[in-house]
Structure formats: C-alpha cells, structure tokens
Amino acid sequence: xxxxxxxxxxxxxxxxxxxxxxxxxxxxxxxxxxxxxxxxxxxxxxxxxxxxxxxxxxxxxxxxxxxxxxxxxxxxxxxxxxxxxxxxxxxxxxxxxxxxxxxxxxxxxxxxxxxxxxxxxxxxxxxxxxxxxxxxxxxxxxxxxxxxxxxxxxxxxxxxxxxxxxxxxxxxxxxxxxxxxxxxxxxxxxxxxxxxxxxxxxxxxxxxxxxxxxxxxxxxxxxxxxxxxxxxxxxxxxxxxxxxxxxxxxxxxxxxxxxxxxxxxxxxxxxxxxxxxxxxxxxxxxxxxxxxxxxxxxxxxxxxxxxxxxxxxxxxxxxxxxxxxxxxxxxxxxxxxxxxxxxxxxxxxxxxxxxxxxxxxxxxxxxxxxxxxxxxxxxxxxxxxxxxxxxxxxxxxxxxxxxxxxxxxxxxxxxxxxxxxxxxxxxxxxxxxxxxxxxxxxxxxxxxxxxxxxxxxxxxxx
Length: 462
Prior knowledge:
The chain is α+β, with helices and mostly antiparallel strands. 43% of the residues lie in helices and 18% in strands. It is globular.
C-alpha cells in the first residue's frame, strides 16, 4: 500500500491495543526420545566376518542387515547410516527427490517440530539428516561414543515416526524459489538447469527440473511416495567408528526389531544415449563477463573398479595438459576442472568432462582448444613425468583415505548388501593404483577421447 510507514505502524499498534491479553504460556518443553522402547528385540540369525578388512555383517531374523567397522581413526566418534528403498530411481515425478529431501529435513519428527527437535538436542553432539540418493534413501547420523543409543533412537524415530508438515513444505518452496532465482542468473546454475540433462541424453534424473515443474509439487505427493517406503522397505544399517560392538548389535536388534521385507536388491537405471558430436549453446540472463564451457566424452559405468580407477587418472592427466597448454599459449589464468563421473545406476554410462569459466568472447575458441587437447591425448604418448604427476597425489591421498571413517562408511559399507564387491575394493585400492602404467592410460585415452565422440555445452551471458 502507499501509506506512510508511521501510519502503518500506528494502525497495527491500535489494533494490538484492542486485543484481550491472556497469561503467557511457554511452548511445551521438547523431550527426546519420546517413543517407547520396543518390547521385542530381533535376534541375530547370521554373522559373517570379512576379516581381511576388519568388517562384520550381522543379519537379524527379521531381515535387517547390520555392517560394522570398528576404527580408532577419530576417537570418540560414531557414524551411523541407515539405507532403504531405491531413492531417485523410484521418483514418481522427476525432481521430486530433491524437493522431498528438503521437506523431510524441514519437518522435524512426528512428535517434534524442527525447532523443538533442535532444542531437545541442544545439549548433545548427535545429529541425523535425511538424504535422497540416486539409488537409496538414507538417514545418516554422527555423534559421540557416549551418545550411541541416542543416535539409534534418532535414526529409528526418523524412520518410524517421520513428519510431513505444511510448515516444512512452505519453507522448502520458499528456499527452492530463492535457489532457482539465483541459478537462472549464473552460468553454473544454467548448467544445472539445462546442461546436465543434455549430457545425459535428456534423462530427467540429471540436473534439475524447470521451476514450473518444481512449483507443482504438493505435500501429499511427497508423503504418498515416502511414507509407505519408510514403513515397509528392507533396512541396511552401517556403523563405523569408535563404538562398543555388543552395544551396537543390541541397539540394532532393539530399535529395528519390527518385521520388514527381507529383500536387499540393487536397482538399475536406464540406458542413456550420450549426445556424441552435438553442441548446446545456452544464454544466461546475466550482465557478468563469465561464460562456462564444457567439453565431455562418454566413458563407462562405475562397476569395473579397475577401469574406473584408471579413468580417474586419465582425467588428472587431461587436467594437467589443459592447464599447461592453455596457460602457456594464452597466459590465461583459467582454472579448468576435469573429472570422470561414472554412473552407479545407469548401465554403461559415464562422462569424462572438462569445464572452465572463460571470457565470453573466448568461449568458442577455448571449447575447440579443449577438444583438441583431448584429441592430442587420444593420439599421442603420455610421458612418465605426466603419469607420475597424476599418480603421486592419488597414492598419497589413498594412504589418508583408508584411515578415514567417511571412506569406510561411504565407499565400502553403505549398500554393500546390494553390491558385495564394495567389500573387496579396500584390498586392491593401493596395489591397483600403484600398478597403473602409461600403456593402460594411453589405451583408455585412445578409446574414449576421440574428438568425434565429444559433446559440448557453451553458456554465455546474453
């Protein structure tokens, strides 16, 4: 309205004066845990020891699987991950996964709003968050060893008494509107909104759906999708860190003792046709002097681990060449990003991509240059020096990696009931990387970095 601020404030004050004043009542103090402890605990039916990697698996009589890896990498820290269902692969509508993840996070629990839950947990370090991943749903938590039971209570309450609140839905919508507003005005954002699905042959699980589609999502859609899965799906729990083994086995049987479906199957995505030889030019409504160029080549999916490791080294060598040649020739301080991303769900699909922020008038020329450097690598020799520069930091980081709880949880244990081969990877990771030869990498470069296979995305301000 056109009223002066003073008039608006005065009107509000006069309105407030008319209200009847009652005694102040504090919001109920939030207490957690609030669910009663289950009467029946599930019993362990089967135990498998993977001694070479210090991992144990317990299968309970109700089908729940518990993977354990006790470590001393971070004293007093416990990490828990519960996975179930098929994640984005089961989306009833593209983009709903990201939206639903936020709604659940913003809604708190059935018995506590998000704010009440925060207040109830203020004195503790334990936190749990919900994730919709490409092929599973997860509740992931972390806390102190002394809070192990609290962590199990948090994860089980999240699963057994989820909340789908209209306040959580409204907050999610507001956050998404804000996020889309920012994305539409940056080159990186336009890559998310349009470039990613182009490189995935139009598959809608890649990148983000248009704003108009996101705006149509309803709270009922989220609840109708997730509630039955949370209620019925088979469960796999993985625990890594400094914990008491007997206590964790007892807690898993106690808090996840109800009857469940007893199937732990891996889901498969779809065949993706990479846009070989195609080019996509996109405008961004921005006055900035930044363009984004991406040149990508089709590779392979994740599951041949030896090939996946070698493709990551090939990406490092390409990165090294791109930096050198573009800096030497152009004196440009561009920071290229080069990596191979193999799919864990879509058979045969992976993308090795090189990406750079550049000046708009250089975009077309530098796109050609990236393709040329890839072609040079496909035709030519790799020097011993190049291989060493790519391998040395990798071998160093592996030594740190295998002494890290996140690696054991994220790369080895989570999902290992669906993909048992993950439990073999730690045994080969160091030896396999150390055994990589120039011939290995030249063979991959010759096979995958052919110029006619490349696709490109050029995003420039209009």
